[in-house]
From TrEMBL, chains A, B:
This is NAD(P)H-hydrate epimerase. NCBIfam families: yjeF_nterm (TIGR00197). HAMAP family: NADHX_epimerase. The lineage of its organism: Eukaryota, Fungi, Dikarya, Ascomycota, Pezizomycotina. The keyword Isomerase applies.
């Protein structure tokens, strides 16, 4: 099985189409995306391996997915901690943060010291709309993710990687390799550089949309919101 | 184990609080409620017993939960059919219906003839805000649900039942007993009259809200969005 990928422009167009002609609200899509991420974390990092999960959230949709995932992880019995240094003023993100605050989930300012007391990290910093430079305060976070031996689950893209060409050839992010990647709706071209456990989530893409954008809906099982893609797939 | 229940007024107040101080959007809550219903149907009616599911949707939130459940059931491999005779003009419900139309899920006008070619029925007609009279065109539907031998899963309340006192003592609905009930957030007082498989869904209620409204969050397992309550519980 080879898995077709969706480039950055196509992924942005698909997102727009889901929220216009397909009539989904961003609240719905983000809830299902974050739920998918939480289920992948549950699979790769069962509670028996430690309940502490540090979720690094960026300023955009990827960060929103992380906030939703953290809430579901709380309900599964995990103890999430949130690093969310660039809070969006967008109403949806503020509400997602409030939902966590109501659960007494801590928000921390110092990512590196928080890494010292966690069992798993979720990288929800940058997603498919990332390009160019990693802005402050995230360079230090990426450097920490490069060095850590803790398991890291990246949402849609390992943050700092180029969506098309993968890890930077040198410098910041060039040695960042998360242990798990959760591709949302469809894998992005960067997946061919990824070595680790790979999941696809987004069980809301209609057959006609998948056909239009020329990718396969993977074989989800039961009521699962994610499916693990066997190693060796997803190569171009 | 006895399970505390939530009366109609308290359930309405809880819903309002979730969408105001708790910062949830109705899109989020309905997505999670419908997802819970779909998971309960998957448990009580696995695909091997027949993939055809007829979902009867009322004009309000209960109907919206049914529309969401039908979409998730489609993705699990079921073949849903929708009976939705009183379509709301509300934007959210219109979008939920569009999401099903994009999957070529059929909407039918004749409930009784649709019953002739289904394996399971979801009753998403009336929820906790129901009181008084069953309005047209639903009396004939309730009569059909009273007579059918098909398994029926009711969302939050067997439609036509009084939220506090349960089935009408005589006339329409008095002999309606669904095979499955999915209580959302917490069981309603009517549950003490229900004989069948009982699930609770709504894994988004914070411990502090459950405490404030004086009900227990049931022991969900793994990533499940529903939990089955052993028979004999839920009695006052």
């Amino acid at each position: 099985m080879t898995l077709k990928t969706l480039g950055a422009k196509a992924a942005a167009a698909l997102d727009q189409e889901l929220m216009s002609t397909c009539a989904f609200s961003i609240d719905q899509l983000m809830e299902l995306a974050g739920l998918a991420v939480s289920q992948a974390v549950y699979r790769v990092h069962p509670l028996s391996r430690g309940a502490r999960v540090l979720v690094a959230c960026g300023p955009g949709n990827n960060g929103g997915d992380g906030l939703v995932a953290a809430r579901h992880l709380f309900y599964y019995g995990y103890k999430p901690t949130i690093f969310y240094p660039k809070r969006s003023k967008n109403d949806l993100y503020q509400r997602l943060a409030k939902q966590l605050e109501d659960l007494d989930v801590p928000f921390v300012d110092d990512f590196q010291s928080a890494m010292g007391s966690t069992d798993h990290i979720v990288d929800a910093i940058f997603g498919f709309s990332f390009s160019g430079e990693v802005r402050e305060p995230f360079p230090a976070v990426i450097r920490a993710l490069e060095k850590t031996r803790l398991p890291v689950t990246s949402v849609d893209a390992p943050s700092s990687w180029d969506i098309e060409s993968g890890p930077p050839s040198s410098g910041l992010g060039s040695s960042f390799m998360p242990t798990t990647l959760v591709s949302l709706t469809a894998p992005k071209p960067l997946v061919k550089h990824f070595k680790g456990r790979h999941f696809v989530g987004g069980r809301f893409v209609s057959p006609s949309i998948a056909k239009k954008y020329d990718f396969e809906v993977p074989p989800y099982e039961g009521v699962d919101q994610v499916v693990e893609i066997p190693s060796g797939s997803g190569k171009i």
